[in-house]
């Protein structure tokens, strides 16, 4: 049995999800005529108390569209130096939006209100105009760390005072919400736009949704077309998402509890120096006396797949296709390394 913990994007649709996909009524979504896509966009917007949604092929696209909406020539985005929008989206902030970036530091991938305030450029001929702050929840590179609403509020106030837009890369927002117990509406009220991935913990094959107000989503639809993301009978994919929103949110807690167990197993391992606090479904282990490449090979020899995460770390992600039997087997196999 292969135990694949490289990512929560590796899951396959469940039989029930596939049934829902086969049964979906569809139409041409570029014409706005796919009833299932429209239903998904409306369902997620309603959940978050936001006006509208836009279904896109990837979370990179929803983030990049949001950045395009909130920036322009000679503008600047504030985000954490380890954020996905900066590190893992192919340099898109520059190539798609021609915007500059101010990178902040902060423990577990989170930025502080004071640092945001200090990073806003002065209204000065020399400086790029700061127009956008982008946050990530959960924070992938922070080890699946969580922002609480109380941490967001002062950042939102600063944005309001300085006329900045606030975007959330919520690729794993539901992982955060099932842990904190906070409501989606509370989050919807804080942000101009939110990107939500359906292909991560929720277990869909494809897709992300961008949420925002009607005017922004209307513009976003046009940007999506220019990015090549207008899909036709995309309702088959949207049906998977509707199914996941109805059936796969609460179960994220299981992924988190398995991740905590997995973290404890690794903590006791002689090749592991430290495990970052496990808050959700991501476990980051700092290695001791072994190079990540060598560690990955050792794990691979035991049919465990994972990825390198920085110069002395490896990352394990739990998901829908990782069950208790695999967890027990994982524990056994790592003792044989
Ligand atoms: C996965 C991910 C995205 C989007 O990735 P896609 O593969 O383009 O869907 C965005 N932000 C974070 C934090 C992610 O983990």
Short summary of the structure?
With 337 residues, the protein is an alpha/beta fold.
Topology record:
Layout: E1 3-4, H1 15-22, H2 35-47, E2 52-56, H3 59-70, E3 75-80, H4 84-87, H5 92-97, E4 100-104, H6 113-119, E5 129-136, H7 149-162, E6 165-170, H8 173-180, H9 184-188, E7 193-197, E8 208-212, H10 214-226, H11 235-247, H12 252-267, E9 272-275, E10 282-287, H13 292-301, E11 304-305, E12 307-308, E13 313-317, H14 324-335
Parallel strand pairs: 1-11, 3-4, 3-5, 5-6, 6-7
Antiparallel strand pairs: 2-8, 7-8, 9-10, 10-13, 12-13
Helix pairs in contact: 1-11, 2-11, 3-10, 6-7, 12-14
The site of pyridoxal-5'-phosphate has 13 residues, from helix 3.
Domain Aromatic amino acid beta-eliminating lyase/threonine aldolase: 4-286
Cofactor: pyridoxal 5'-phosphate
Organism: Belliella marina
